[in-house]
Amino acid sequence: MAEIFEESSNFIHSFVSEDIAPGGQYEGMTVHTRFPPEPNGYLHIGHCKALCIDFGTAEKYGGLCNLRMDDTNPAKEDTEYVEAIQEDIHWLGFDWGDRFYYGSDYFEQTYQYAEELIRKGLAYVCELTPEQFREYRGDLTHPAVSPYRDRPVAENLDLFRRMRAGEFPEGKYTLRAKIDLNSGNFNMRDPVLYRIRYIEHHRQGTKWCIFPMYDFAHPIQDALEGVTHSLCSLEYENHRPLYNWVVEHVSIPCHKPRQIEFARLNINYTVMSKRKLRQLVEEGRVSGWDDPRMPTLCGLRRRGYTPKSIRNFCERIGVSKVYSVVEYAFLEHCLREDLNETARRVMAVTRPVPLIITNYPQGQTETFEIENNPGHPEDGTRTVSFSGKLYVEADDFLETPVPKYKRLYPGGPECRLKGAYLITCTGCEKDETGNITAITCTYDPDSRGGDPADGRKVKGATLHWVDAGTAVEAEVRLYDNLFSDPDPDSADKNFLDCLNPDSLTVIPGARVEASLASAKPGDSFQFMRLGYFCADKDSTGDHLVFNRSVSLKDSFKLRK
After folding, report:
1. 274 classed as catalytic
2. Which of 64, 188, 189, 334 is 20 to 30 A (C-alpha) from 316?
3. Radius of gyration of the chain (CA)
């Protein structure tokens, strides 16, 4: 089992502190970060680490954090994702103020900087095919080759402008930086800066048919926005020399931002690729991006995860430059911690069987006041009705008990009905096929509140229940990991083969106490003895639906 370490220091903050200290490269400046998601899918739990680092670093230093949509690759980008990203970030508790941008806002400026590089002799138009590009790339002992590297500046400018005008088919030309064909870092072997794509952009329409590559557009956008620290995942570490090359060779009239990399978040039993998550949605293997089994923020929100639990999770796993895999169980642990403090306790019976109290006065009803959260008396109590016919869990009865069974069975020990009375099971009723249709018992009328008047010891379990006369019917959905394999994203596996066929169990006909009839989507509760649940967006006044957020049992062990 992986261990969780809380880092005593954050190396990113150490770098930032050095940069703004007297003599540092950003002395006297406002710390400025950015979060630049591509709007080609919904944010997932992996993005939360970057969100917390980007916005959290700005908060720590009293700085600013921009939100910028990296929409320079329009193939899968859509306004739907832009709006969803904004909603998720606000839900998580972060805000970008008036600093919201699109990468496509800078298309014209980026193009002009590309022309500047051409005029400086630092970029050229290349007509190698993708196959030739790979063939001529070389290896660690052989340099790359580019037959078009010495094309005259005037010719490069003419071709690049005609590329923009749409005179050439896709793949005919690219614009490449002229850096170092011998570099041991292949990202510096004359990387592509622009390519031709005839595709409609979600904001620009068909205005552009050439699009900048991320490695060219991103440093320019950071610099134009005044970003001081460009914080990104470790996969961009080898791209940092190119990032620096770009901001050093274009004439942006401002300071040059510093890129710092950190290890991305990896969690077992899930995948973090938006491409793979989109495939799950498009192939109907989940109900949508907000399916409660998905690692997307909207999916976690629908399942009942709270912003506090997710931010606490990201804070406690720390920031490092070392690849590691965090247990999904730790994310669940963080949710339990939060819901244990905030969720109201209620009673629900998922697999109900009638419990008939044979000596309870016929036609009588009464009410009990039961605490909403034993750990927080200030949360008050709620009124729960009681009668001679209740519902209890079918699993709380065995006609023939197993050793050490402490629940209901004929002649078994007294059991407590939570907050109500002590009962003793006397038998059961069955239908013609032998299925149990009701459990019978007697109660001690002098044990109101659950404690016997004579102080005798109660050996049986405390059971949850609902009043058959007032209980409301509901559908309960139990969720497990979407994947049965702890590493479904491994290169040697087809992640679809790792899907868990038992990741969703739907239980119709559950019974919940009457107070839940008014539950609104997103309201969270602890169903006593069963777990934490929240009302689903499908829930209506006529058809209540509750999702299990997490079970009560915690399998994660904190390192001491």
Report:
1. yes
2. 64
3. 31
